[in-house]
Amino acid sequence: MRFACERSVRYTRGVPGSRTRGALALALLALGCVEAGLGDERPRGVVLIVAEGLRADDHVASPVLARLAAEGVRFESVQSQSPSTVSAVASLWTGLYPRRHLAAGERGFADGIPTLPERMQAAGYRTHGRIASTALDMECFRRGFDRVEVAPAGPGDVVAWVQRTADQLGSGERFFLYLHFAHAQVEEEVGAVLRLLSERGLEDLTLVALTSDHGREIGPGDGDLSQALLAVPLLIRGPGVRPGHVVRARMRLMDVGTTLLEIAMREKSPAYLGSGRSLVPALRGEPLENPDPVLSESAGLAAIVTPEGMKLVHGAGVDRLFDLATDPDETRDLASTQPDVVERLTAELEAWFEVLDANAFDTDE
């Protein structure tokens, strides 16, 4: 069995402030201004920002995120497929559940799984990535980029990368930028990017999406597969997006890739990434039907959340049941009082896993 995505040092088989503000100004100026990307036009640029450990409610205390939410669509109930960076980002990039892509720890996903950067590249976008997480220093997280840098990022490092990247872009060239850094850098880096997009006339040409790999623990009750670790923000702003709209239906982090591809390609059928579902109707302010139950996994535990908000955490000989609609902080375990619900959700979870296990990308070569 061979994977294309071991850590880079072990890889053996290849597969296809004012200073901050000034540097970004030069970078974005180099991108140039072209035809409007409104309506059915493809956006000139797509920027996907992943801030590690950003909780779903962090936008409340962040002026930058609050502005992004007001100018675009905020998805209120988005759940990561794993509280682990490697597994969660693999789901984001492939549109697959962890049981299908099998990425975890120091092992990434198997050969032959299409990724978001690869699909953006095939759609005619010049793809560039700045990844500040060394956990993602694997070859599969480099696939599909025309240029990518994986290294820790201090203050100003991401800005410097943007400037170097802009120097390589041709006039009128479509671009996909993937920025991945710690949540503590959100205010400075994201704020500067948004300001400069506006100042250089690129605001109406560029789709900006901000999310996280997973949440973070802030209290003694957090842990395992709690919503504190699984609930993530999703803010999307850009051409054709309805400002100030809030989507309350429960969604999956693994749906983001398909959504960005549909916008970038402007054609629905070939845009799907893995098992991802497009959220494009919600960006226009249209009603979005509740999807299938949302699944998440970690270290022998699994969680299933129904569209109505009933959540079962199953594994290690213990079942925990919560009603997220009335108890979003998961303070009341209902498993002992609603055994019929536990039984029903356990059967549904096992049925899902049977299908996913049968279609996992874990093949011998």
Task: List key phrases describing it.
12 strands, globular, Alkaline Phosphatase, subunit A, alpha/beta, Arylsulfatase, C-terminal domain
Strand order of the largest sheet: 4-3-5-1-6-7-2-8
Shape: globular
Structural class by SSE content: alpha/beta
Question: Would you tell me which CATH topology of the largest domain applies?
Answer: Alkaline Phosphatase, subunit A
- What is the beta-strand fraction? 15-25%
The number of distinct β-strands equals: 12
- Poorly predicted spans: 1-38
SSE succession: HEHEHHHEEHEHEHEEHHEEEEH
CATH architecture of the largest domain: 3-Layer(aba) Sandwich
Radius of gyration: 20 Å
Q: Characterize the biggest β-sheet.
A: 8 strands, mixed
Classify the helix fraction into a percent range: 25-40%
Number of domains: 2
Number of helices: 11
> Would you identify the CATH H-level superfamily of the largest domain?
Alkaline Phosphatase, subunit A
- What is the mean predicted local confidence, pLDDT? 83
- Terminal CA distance reads 6 Å
Short description:
The chain has eleven helices and twelve strands. By secondary structure, the protein is α/β, with parallel strands linked by helices.
Can you give a write-up of this model?
- The chain has two domains: 34-291, 3-Layer(aba) Sandwich (Alkaline Phosphatase, subunit A), CATH 3.40.720.10; 300-358, 2-Layer Sandwich (Arylsulfatase, C-terminal domain).
- Helices cover 29% and strands 21% of the residues.
- The chain has eleven helices and twelve strands.
- Strand 11 (310-315) and strand 12 (318-323) form a beta hairpin.
- Helix 1 packs parallel to helix 6 (157-167), helix 1 (18-31) packs across helix 7 and helix 2 (63-71) crosses helix 7 (186-199).
- The radius of gyration is 20 Å and the shape is globular.
- The model is unreliable at 1-38 (pLDDT under 50).
